[in-house]
Design goal:
Elements: H1 5-33, H2 41-73
Helix pairs in contact: 1-2
Length: about 80
């Protein structure tokens, strides 16, 4: 097993979740109101907010999964 794998996952999971939330929020506003992708401040604001929210949730989910795994194996 590669040393430091969990730290890389712990760092990259919120980053990718942020980008996914940014895309999802901006694309949703684009589909609702029209215009270009990230062309309006509303799309950018909703995208940033959703990106931050998903990044926080992904980190919390990862921590919960590690705690659950530790509890299952009895660590």
């Amino acid at each position: 097993m590669f040393l430091g794998t969990s730290s890389v996952v712990c760092l990259m999971l919120p980053v990718w979740s942020f980008f996914g939330g940014l895309w999802l929020g901006a694309k949703g506003v684009n589909l609702l109101f029209g215009g270009g992708f990230l062309a309006t401040s509303t799309g950018l604001t909703i995208g940033l907010g959703l990106g931050i929210l998903l990044a926080i949730f992904s980190w919390q989910f990862y921590e919960l999964g590690v705690a659950f795994l530790g509890a299952v194996i009895g660590a």
